[in-house]
Specification:
Helices cover 25% and strands 19% of the residues. It is of the alpha/beta class and 520 residues long. The chain has a 6-stranded mixed β-sheet with strand order 10-11-9-12-13-14, sandwiched between helices.
């Protein structure tokens, strides 16, 4: 099978990188067993960007490799370390690439070097528990998951950006003309349909430099699929003007320049979108005696139609310079009316769901409640359903958004099925109203009661501080502490008195003898 060298239509599958997961971590060090949450955030996934590159003239790379994927974001880590960003994947495309979805809707028309389209945006990184902590939720025991990157199936269609388009029958001399007025070197042979792909040439007319496009020859019935040219007419849709290249020396029976022009104009009309382009007529091959004679016989008819006619010979170069200057004038006039557009960057973003607070709730025929909206669907993707605390956090978020209230308004009862997201890839819940379950009495998910419970040592210190205000003169802080702890009175005593704990010491106390012995 022949390997194509020019591809102007492809279907491309793109998938952006997934965001890295956040991390639930607690800072620990000596004497700080509960130093607080320090889990870092996950890095965002890499996006896929289409960028116009003047050095790229075909879509052949995507014909051979139609699937492209960007890198994922890195996972967060403890000690407030965030994950690395996924690297963006930049796909170079030719100038004039039209991007469509699979339904044929135009997403962007990339014209101008450097123009960009973010066709698939990388997933957001999940938040670590340090970012989720607040004054009311001091130690979250969970983190959010990274979101998957966008995945799309798109169509790329190349429409060559040229100033002048050459149209005509096969073997009319279009390729010879573009080779004569530029450095383009298309294939030229003495048989029809030599040109199989569009050719571009750069031409200089005075101070104006412009491009000329040559498309495969048109024949009658091209709109019905005959020949090759009609398929490539989209490559001249951006042209400022068209040049009819007419063969005045054709040996085919029944052919004449007037009929050739009418047939080509009919095919252009059936293609559509080219009615407003100015036309020039180039009567080619006047270097042949019969060709010059026929040109002189028909030039008057063309001029009656308001067309500017040039008698040329692509082989000898006769008349080509005058044609070049006429094309340059049309290009200069067209450029005056077109403002200079700087390279743009377009980001495709999904439309928000209609309805209150950015979400909608619908009841299916089966009695299921379908919740759709950017926020609830994104929150579901971020939730680790293996972590009960994370699931509770999701319930709190949905409740604050008003989802639960809306479900109750629509008649949802405990145990009813609630589906969040696209039914093909959704998360299914059994409805459990927080009012009935008493969830409002449990406090916010993610709270750590250890931060609210007073440590015993701190409580004792405050108690002793209060007791110091009523201490006796002979009491030290330790005496106050002992009195408060044991409920006894002062511990000060006279040596040898009744309160002296050593008053019952005897001569045969083994402790004394050991002390005496050790003293020796």
């Amino acid at each position: 099978m022949a390997v194509p060298t020019f591809v102007d239509r492809v279907t491309l599958h793109v998938e952006a990188g997934r965001g890295g997961h956040g991390v639930a971590s607690v800072h620990r060090e000596k004497f700080k067993p509960l130093g607080g949450p320090d889990g870092g955030n996950g890095g965002p996934g890499g996006s896929i960007i289409l960028r116009v590159d003047p050095d790229v003239t075909t879509l052949i790379d995507y014909h051979h490799s139609p699937k492209r994927k960007a890198s994922n974001g890195g996972q967060g880590a403890g000690d407030h370390k965030n994950g690395a960003h996924g690297e963006d994947l930049v796909l170079p495309v030719p100038d004039g690439t039209v991007v469509t979805d699979m339904n044929g809707n135009v997403l962007a028309d990339l014209v101008g070097p450097g123009s960009e389209l973010v066709i698939a945006e990388g997933g957001r990184g999940g938040l670590g528990n340090a970012a989720l902590a607040s004054s009311k939720r001091k130690a979250p025991g969970f983190a959010l998951l990274g979101e998957p990157g966008e995945a799309r199936e798109i169509g790329l269609e190349l429409k060559v950006v040229a100033d002048i388009g050459l149209v005509g029958f096969p073997s009319a001399g279009k390729s010879s003309l573009i080779a004569a007025i530029s450095r383009a070197r298309p294939k030229i042979a003495d048989y029809p349909f030599t040109t199989l792909v569009p050719n571009l040439g750069v031409v200089k007319g005075g101070e104006i430099t412009f491009t000329v496009a040559d498309v495969p020859g048109l024949i009658e019935g091209a709109a019905d699929g005959r020949g090759l040219g009609h398929e490539f007419l989209r490559h001249i849709e951006r042209c400022a003007a068209l040049v009819h290249v007419i063969d005045t020396a054709s040996i085919e029976p029944g052919r004449n320049p007037i009929d050739d022009l009418d047939i080509i104009e009919n095919e252009l009309s059936r293609h559509g979108g080219l009615e407003d382009r100015p036309r020039l007529v180039a009567l080619n091959k006047v270097d042949v005696p019969d060709g010059r004679e026929i040109a002189e016989m028909t030039i008057g008819e063309f001029e009656k139609r308001g067309l500017k006619v040039f008698e040329i010979s692509a082989a000898s170069g006769e008349g080509t310079q005058q044609l070049i200057y006429a094309m340059a004038e049309l290009v200069a006039a067209a450029r005056k009316d077109v403002p200079v557009v700087p390279p743009t960057r377009i980001v495709l973003r999904p439309e928000g769901a209609e309805g209150k607070n950015g979400f909608t709730v619908k009841v299916s025929k089966n009695g299921e409640y379908l919740v759709r909206g950017p926020q609830p669907e994104r929150w579901v993707r971020q939730t680790d359903f293996d972590n009960e605390e994370a699931v509770g956090y999701l319930a709190d978020r949905l409740n604050r958004l008003g989802v639960e209230e809306r479900l109750v308004e629509l008649g949802a009862e405990e145990g009813d099925t609630v589906i969040i997201g696209d039914p093909a890839n959704a998360v299914v819940f059994d409805f459990r109203p927080s009012i009935e379950t008493g969830a409002e009495m449990l406090g916010r998910r993610g709270e750590d009661q250890r931060f609210y419970e007073e440590r015993p040592a701190a409580a004792r210190r405050r108690e002793i501080d209060a007791g110091m205000e009523t201490k006796e003169e002979y009491e030290a802080r330790a005496d106050v502490a002992r009195r408060l702890r044991e409920g006894s009175g002062p511990v000060a005593y006279e040596i040898g008195g009744e309160d002296d704990p050593d008053s019952d010491w005897a001569e045969n106390d083994p402790g004394e003898s050991s002390r005496s012995t050790s003293g020796n």
